[in-house]
Amino acid sequence: MKKLWAPWRLEGILESMGKECIFCGLPRQNNDEENFIIWRGELTFVMLNRFPYNNGHLMVAPFRHEPDIEGLTDEEWLEMFRATTTSLGALKEALGPDGFNVGINVGSSAGAGFPGHVHVHIVPRWTGDTSFMPILADTKVLSESLADNYRRLRPFFSPPARSSES
């Protein structure tokens, strides 16, 4: 049996416990660049994950606080997956990954760090992107800062992210 081992993500999980939902609170701050919100639609938005598995790890979420995909409206569902498709294209063009992991964790036992707000994870993958560093040194090597990653990806999203809440 193979195991996914990502101890660096514990910081993000512990940081989120007992705090406001990031998918509700960060868009209300209207500070998209600082919060790494890369695109806003009418019903959904795309943001960089602050505790990524790899560079370019994006999350797509509805503005409305909804725990399950079954509770999404048809309009939210459609915009969320159009944003997912757009994100895949942007990541392909900007970063040139060899593949992707795309998924939705529903409920905390499934790995959802914010189980009360459904969101899609898009993780770019490169052949050989797992190394000995997380195992031996408890360290994940990311080749680009989140701010640089944001600036690299931002031009691939159109229209530009709006600064006010939808």
TrEMBL record:
Residues 22-132 form the HIT domain. InterPro entries: AP-4-A_phosphorylase, FHIT, HIT-like, HIT-like_sf. Transmembrane segments: none annotated. Coiled coil: none annotated. It holds the Pfam family HIT. One of its GO terms (molecular function) is hydrolase activity. The active site is at H119 (tele-amp-histidine intermediate). Substrate binds at N49, H121. SUPFAM superfamilies: HIT-like (SSF54197). The keyword Acetylation does not apply. The keyword Nucleotide-binding applies. Keywords: Hydrolase, Nucleotide-binding. A motif (Histidine triad motif) lies at residues 117-121. PANTHER family: AP-4-A PHOSPHORYLASE (PTHR42997:SF1), HIT FAMILY HYDROLASE (PTHR42997). This is HIT family hydrolase.
